[in-house]
Amino acid sequence: MKKRVVITGMGVVSPNAIGLTAFEKAIKTGKSGIRFFQELADLNFSCQIGGKPEISEELLKEYFTELQLRGLNASGIKYGVIAGIDAWKDANLKINENEAPDYDSGIIFGTGILGVDKFREAIHLIDEGKTRRLGSTSVIQTMASGISAYLGGMLGCGNQVTTNSSACSTGTEALIMGAERIQNGKANRMLVGSCSDHGPYVWGGFDAMRILPSKFNDNPEKASQPMSANATGFVPGSGAGALVLEEYETAKKRGAKIYAEVLGSSVNSGGQRLGGSMTATNNQAVQRCITEAMKDAKIQANEIDAINGHLTATTKDSVEIENWTKALQRKVENFPIINSLKGMTGHCLSASGSIELVASVLQLKHQFIFGNVNCEEIHPEITELISENKIPKKTISENINILAKASFGFGDVNAVVILKKYDENQA
């Protein structure tokens, strides 16, 4: 028998808010975190806007020592540490100050591109023959596992401490990997999440691909339009999300608050076959990932009340909706309510899954569906598949028992997790 896995803590650093309370308010009110950046204009970017969390030096000092902040350039590490520490504290867990590690607790915290600014600084110093000026933190800021290493040392975790990387699927995959470790009895709790750096050296490649909107530099809050007939590309973003997963009996024993339960999940790849490519999904694989997640969760398609989709505000949004209708065998009025966070935050790349998971769990816990921002005119290919009232434009109260969260990433990789509202009376 697999052990039950519940979510007992969360933290978030999003372009539109930092911290759970502010984030919940932001997604309920449709607050945008997308802004214009003069730096991108000076560098001749076509898309000169993005989603970047606003973090003060005072806030950083609450999480890092002066020594840790010295030469710390990797924005993803800053975001990830804040989100991770907040999630740990939200779960009412104490930071391990003992000499011995906490062998029951581990970390799987993913990223995509980490420490780009530090890489740039290092390249210049090395080329100028000034290697000794690199500092002692250049390696840990630029290695992919830098974020899990920082958090592992801060929290004193002694179970598996590692980093995963699967493009836009990273955060959702991290949760699935952490949940499986607990289900199999290899850990009592896992801090999971993901982070992403910001800035021109991360976003430049996407601008070169011409997949970012370039006509909203004067109106950034309107640029990201998931499921809209007027969608012209995704807005790049950054940040971090974190969740504490815990074995159910362990959580109950210590009297932890429980946000939701992880019922099941699936990860797969389309193999870049059957229409799948480095940047496009194999639709058959997407549908299989959805159905396998339901099978793992032991639920039927008609039990899903809501979907938080990947839905990036590109021409592929209608394809994603079609995949959901085929996998669930539900269409028109029978389709679940669906939403996308990216209208408010942009596409936070490797951080997107974890930030959106936090938003999904908040919806389950507090029984609401946040509105689809900038979706005044739904794409006609989507309205042919599902009813418009399944795509709420404003936040609504809704009874949600089961929610499906999906992330699909470059490289033709997919991740779907099934979450359930926690009810003490039925536990």
UniProtKB/TrEMBL annotation:
Catalysed conversion reaction: (3Z)-decenoyl-[ACP] + malonyl-[ACP] + H(+) = 3-oxo-(5Z)-dodecenoyl-[ACP] + holo-[ACP] + CO2; a fatty acyl-[ACP] + malonyl-[ACP] + H(+) = a 3-oxoacyl-[ACP] + holo-[ACP] + CO2
Top-level lineage group: Bacteria
Keywords from the named record: Acyltransferase, Cytoplasm, Transferase
Places the protein is found: Cytoplasm
Native organism taxonomy: Bacteria, Pseudomonadati, Bacteroidota, Flavobacteriia, Flavobacteriales
The keyword Acyltransferase is annotated on this UniProt entry: yes
Source species: Mesonia maritima
Family as reported in the entry's similarity comment: Belongs to the thiolase-like superfamily. Beta-ketoacyl-ACP synthases family.
Domain Ketosynthase family 3 (KS3): 2-421
Assembly and oligomerization: Homodimer.
CDD domains in the record: KAS_I_II
Keyword hit for Cytoplasm: yes
UniProt-recorded name of the protein: 3-oxoacyl-[acyl-carrier-protein] synthase 1
